[in-house]
Write a structure and sequence with these properties.
Elements (H helix, E strand, L loop, with lengths): L4 E6 L2 H12 L2 E5 L4 E5 L5 E6 L11 E4 L3 H13 L8 E2 L3 E7 L3 E6 L1
Parallel strand pairs: 1-4, 5-8
Antiparallel strand pairs: 2-3, 3-4, 6-7, 7-8
Length: 112
């Protein structure tokens, strides 16, 4: 069985969509105003974004974007840092990884 989609409630669909497009190569295939966006990755996975008044995910909740190398993790980290995102640098944990708070109220893990 294959998981094919996940829905995230976010405080701002447009900024969350732009973040996912800019840093993780997702593409938006459809929207409904400012309240909904359907994002796709290159494997056909669908991540839908729906606007909510408030977003309160559990502290450990996150979505992950695995990378092919530590160098790619470092590249994404540097781009985010240069664009003003605050996060701890990558560390060796269960892989070479870091976490960033995404616009819209959810956390993203980048790892190799």
């Amino acid at each position: 069985m294959k998981l094919n989609h996940l829905n995230l409630t976010v405080t701002n669909v447009e900024t969350a969509r732009e973040f996912l497009e800019t840093y993780f190569g997702m593409t938006c295939e459809g929207t409904r105003g400012n309240g909904f966006a359907a994002m796709f990755d290159e494997d056909g996975f669908v991540l839908t974004l729906m606007k909510g008044k408030s977003v309160e995910y559990p502290q450990t909740f996150h979505i992950g974007f695995p990378q092919e190398s530590k160098e790619k993790v470092d590249e994404i980290y540097q781009r985010l840092k240069e664009d003003g995102f605050e996060m701890d640098p990558p560390i060796e944990a269960h892989g070479y990884t870091f976490y960033v708070q995404a616009p819209g109220g959810f956390t993203v893990e980048v790892l190799a």
